Amino acid sequence: MKKIKFKRGILENGLKVLVHEDHTNPIVAFTIFYEVGSRYEHIGITGVSHILEHMMYRGTKRIEPEAFSRIIGKLGGEDNAFTTKDFTAFYSIVPRDKIEIPIELESDRMYNLIFQGFEEELKVIKEERLWRTENNPFGLLWEKFWATAFEVHPYRNPVIGWMTDLENITLKAVKEFYQSFYTPRHAMAIFAGDITFEEALKLTEKYFTKGNKKSLEEPVIPEEPEQMGEKRVYLEKENGNPVIAVGYKIPQFSHPDNRVLTLLSDVLGDGKSSILMRKLVYEREVFSGITAENYALKDPGLFVIYGSPVNDMDVEKAEQELDRILNELKDLITEEDVQVAKNKALADFIFEQESVKNVGFSLGEFEILDRAECINLLPEKIMKVQLEDIKRAIDQYLVRKTRNVAILKVKK
């Protein structure tokens, strides 16, 4: 199977550079990953990584607010950004002969952000939180679900931040976080497309070694204590659809069982032919929809199953039906189910390589959560997973001791 070839380098200031050459089309995807997200936040400044994602578009000493995207657009390119629990990424896709421009722009905002319009942008984020969470029953339940599952680890905090923190965070705190984390040592430049390693390294050195910015003291990430029993949280709303979410503690992304758990999530809840859809939606008509996700993160995460019971179904009965299937799971999963999941995973791996943007995303994610080199071990790891590995994972991880349940009830 075709491997994702890449070369790596590192500048004297600590900035990592990863380059995947693909000369099929004259375009380059350039992504800056910052190893910063809600994992690095504490109460008082939750949501600060997401705030900085917004502020990075509010201008520097050289360019006016919102000019970044206009400049990339005029080049015939596209750009965007996103924040997760473990990292923040900013990407631009441009013609190869224009690649120097986004590199210069990213360097500029790493060193020279001016924080113009901070209060205005904070208002936008608070409004975003209102429609995503406060006024969204599922969003509110999802937030309570993660806050219940994790007692001390920052994964308990939402990426967008708690509203109390958004209402009280200061510009001084945001600037301090920017100075601490938006630095070469916490960053990684990913190039994917029609560019050579030598060209990419030369341009990165040209623009990212000019500033004098050093990381401040590293934060101490609290270690989540071992969960010793099931935890539950309930929410009742007058509108929306009922929801049941069940989550089990799982190891970090780099753990050997990560691939097994991903395939298990596909077998359980990916598509109409998955076990949970077949049994609970089509045969027993208990849920209107249900899925499973393996949230493997830099630190131990959650294996989550969630769905909406049909409107006339009591949520307690729906949970009982779900538990019945989970208890029978080892007898329900077949060799064919596992093979179908493996085929899909391999197909996704192949299709992903058709987009230089996605290749860049994958390299960055793997480098932060494990090592970028591990991306090419993925097909072999997938093929090695057998039915017995899936059954072992069920016994080992889908247990009451580490189970967390969130239920959204709708008032009648």
Describe the structure in your own words.
The protein is α+β, with helices and mostly antiparallel strands and 412 residues long. The chain has two domains: 202 residues, 2-Layer Sandwich (Cytochrome Bc1 Complex, Chain A, domain 1), CATH 3.30.830.10; 180 residues, Metalloenzyme, LuxS/M16 peptidase-like (Cytochrome Bc1 Complex, Chain A, domain 1, 2-Layer Sandwich). Helices cover 42% and strands 19% of the residues. It is built from 16 helices and eleven strands. The strands form two sheets. It has a six-stranded mixed beta sheet, with helices on both faces. A five-stranded mixed beta sheet has the order 7-11-8-10-9. It is globular. The mean pLDDT is 96.
CATH architectural type of the largest domain: 2-Layer Sandwich
* Envelope shape: globular
What oligomeric state is this? single chain
Tally of individual helices: 16
CATH-derived topology of the largest domain: Cytochrome Bc1 Complex, Chain A, domain 1
Reported for the largest beta sheet, the result is:
6 strands, mixed
Rounded mean pLDDT is 96
Question: In terms of structural class, how would the helical and strand content be classed?
Answer: alpha+beta
The CATH homologous superfamily of the largest domain is termed: Metalloenzyme, LuxS/M16 peptidase-like
Taking pLDDT < 50 over at least 5 consecutive residues as the criterion, the unreliable ranges are: none
Radius of gyration: 23 Å
Share of β-strand residues = 15-25%
Query: What is the helix fraction of residues, given as a range?
Result: 40-55%
Strand arrangement, major sheet: 1-2-6-3-5-4
Number of extended strands: 11
* Count of domains: 2
Q: Could you give the distance between the termini?
A: 55 Å
SSE pattern: EEEHHEEHHHHHEHEEHHEEHHHHHHE
